[in-house]
Each structure stands twice: as structure tokens, then as C-alpha cells.
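User: Could you go from structure to sequence for me? I need the amino acid at each position, not a summary. C-alpha cells:
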């Protein structure tokens, strides 16, 4: 396969919903490999999620060793294969050599793409030239597709649309997860055309982004496996309806998820998003488990409030179907 053919394949794979995974830990805080496999099969199989974004911030990569990150990548690729599921591996790390090592490992393991967050830089070093060289070097380490990732609160700066376009000139840069204001990612979408696939994480905007911006892929966080059950795949349904042009029906199906969205948002304690999402997973019959330090667990009262909201939102009823 030529380089251009490989990049065309990378772009073609980026369609539909790609969800960021949570990493299940056992009570002793080791990686729960059996639970990880069980979740992967559920997400790819029962929920039909097109691709998974593993070892990201939602997955607590910052508290995982390099060996653990390599192992969870290998398992994800193994479990994705029977479903032809996509695997995008977060290689983000403050040490560029660690990021490069993880990138090469992801390709060797059989991942479709790597994704790397904009680096945290000090003393004004976040110039366009520095950032370009950072991504150029990492992209040079692999032949698979590279996805940029920019969330300004986490790195302290925004990749401006013109810099994103410059970065898209790196041969294997194919997409960006662009967690910025809607008007900014809309601007980049218009300017980029076919040069760069643009996505952003808020589920509240996904439907409008399909309709208004013609987006083909949703590089999101956890909604696809928190809003759905095997018998109730309304997020996948409204996505397919919108992409087929049935906008009115898509909006109707999406609106039906509002009670679930409110239940999640209203019970999520400040600073405990990961613990809250893992507990919601458990309520759905998935493997959640504890969080690792420095993250905090839910209190008993927080769990009771979350369970009550879960049982009232209508999602629990679909588990018995």
C-alpha cells in the first residue's frame, strides 16, 4: 500500500462515532484486563460504536505506566478485530520521547491512528514553529494517520485555524479533535475543506455539526456508551438519520435523550467526572471500577443521587429488553 493509499484509508476509517474510553481498574488499582476486554466487546459489539479512542485523558493515561498503556493498546486492537472496529491510540505525554515510543508501538500493534494532544510548553515557547516541529517529528515516527488534539484549558493555548491548516500539510496528519468554541471550529471546517477532518467533543453540538457543517466523524468523549444500551441506541440512530438527510426525524430522536443528558449532568460532582462516569457505567452493567490518585471517588450520597437519577431517566428500563 502506498503512502497516499494508506492516508486515504485512514481518512475513510474516520466515519461515524468514535468514543473516548475509560480504563477499568481493579480494587487493588491494577488494570482490570478482563474488564477492559468485556467493555471493548460491549462497545464494539452490543453498542456498535465505530471506533474507540483509548488511553486518553478520560482513560486516566496520566496515572498509567508506559507498560500499561502499551498493554491496553494491544488488547484494544485484539478485541476490535472481530468487529472491524477502529482503534485510535492517545500517545500524549509531556515527554516527547515517550510519545514517540507510544506512537511507534501503536502502529506495530495494529492501531488505525494515533492522536496527540498539543504539548504543554513554558516561557512562551508555544510558537507556531515550535508546535509545527513537535507534530512534524511525531508524525515522522509512524506511517499511520495522525490526529491533532487541542483543548486550550489543558495546554494553555489554542491552535489557531491557520496553524491547523499548516499542520495539515504534514503528510499523515488527517484530522483534529478541536475542543474550542463552535465559531472557531466552524471556521476551520470551512477553510480546511477536504484537507483536514475536523471534529469536537460536545455531544450537544454533534447533530448540528452533521447538519450545518457536514461532519463525518465524531471524536467524542464518553456519551456513546453512557447514553445507550444494546436495546436503546438512539445516539447511533440520530447520527445515521442525520447523515442520511432525515433531519426532522434525527432531531426528534435526539430530543428523546434529553432526560438522560439531564440525569448525567445534574448528578456529576465538580472535579469527579471520571468517577461519576465509571459509576454510571456500572449502573449500565459495564465495568467501571475505582479511579487512581489524584482523582477522587464519589461519596455514598453522590452515588445514591446518581442512581436515583439513572433509574428515573428511562435508560434503566431498556436494560431488561
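Assistant: Here is the amino acid at each position, in order:
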Amino acid at each position: 500500500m502506498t503512502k497516499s493509499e494508506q492516508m486515504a484509508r485512514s481518512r475513510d476509517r474516520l466515519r461515524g462515532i468514535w468514543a473516548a474510553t475509560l480504563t477499568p481498574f481493579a480494587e487493588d488499582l491494577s488494570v482490570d484486563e478482563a474488564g477492559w476486554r468485556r467493555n471493548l466487546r460491549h462497545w464494539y459489539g452490543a453498542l456498535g460504536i465505530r471506533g474507540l479512542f483509548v488511553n486518553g485523558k478520560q482513560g486516566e493515561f496520566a496515572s498509567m505506566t508506559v507498560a500499561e498503556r502499551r498493554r491496553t493498546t494491544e488488547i484494544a486492537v485484539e478485541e476490535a478485530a472481530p468487529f472491524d472496529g477502529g482503534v485510535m491510540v492517545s500517545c500524549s505525554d509531556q515527554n516527547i520521547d515517550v510519545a514517540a515510543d507510544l506512537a511507534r508501538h501503536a502502529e506495530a500493534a495494529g492501531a488505525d491512528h494515533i492522536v496527540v494532544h498539543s504539548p504543554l510548553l513554558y516561557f512562551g515557547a508555544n510558537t507556531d514553529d515550535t508546535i509545527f516541529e513537535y507534530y512534524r517529528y511525531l508524525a515522522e515516527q509512524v506511517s499511520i494517520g495522525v490526529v491533532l488534539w487541542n483543548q486550550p484549558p489543558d495546554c494553555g493555548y489554542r491552535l489557531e485555524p491557520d496553524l491547523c491548516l499548516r499542520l495539515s500539510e504534514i503528510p499523515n496528519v488527517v484530522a483534529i479533535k478541536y475542543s474550542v468554541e463552535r465559531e472557531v471550529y466552524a471556521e476551520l471546517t470551512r477553510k480546511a475543506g477536504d484537507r483536514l477532518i475536523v471534529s469536537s467533543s460536545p455531544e450537544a453540538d454533534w447533530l448540528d455539526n452533521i447538519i450545518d457543517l457536514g461532519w463525518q466523524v465524531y471524536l467524542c468523549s464518553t456519551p456513546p456508551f453512557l447514553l445507550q444500551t444494546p436495546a436503546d441506541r438512539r445516539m447511533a440512530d440520530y447520527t445515521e438519520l442525520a447523515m442520511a438527510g432525515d433531519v426532522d426525524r434525527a432531531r426528534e430522536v435526539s430530543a428523546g435523550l434529553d432526560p438522560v443528558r439531564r440525569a448525567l449532568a445534574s448528578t456529576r460532582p465538580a472535579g469527579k467526572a471520571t468517577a461519576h462516569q465509571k459509576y454510571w457505567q456500572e449502573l449500565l452493567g459495564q465495568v467501571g471500577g475505582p479511579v487512581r490518585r489524584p482523582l477522587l471517588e464519589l461519596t455514598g450520597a453522590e452515588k445514591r443521587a446518581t442512581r436515583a437519577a439513572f433509574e428515573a431517566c428511562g435508560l434503566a428500563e431498556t436494560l431488561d429488553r
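One structural detail worth keeping in mind: The chain has one domain: 3-227.
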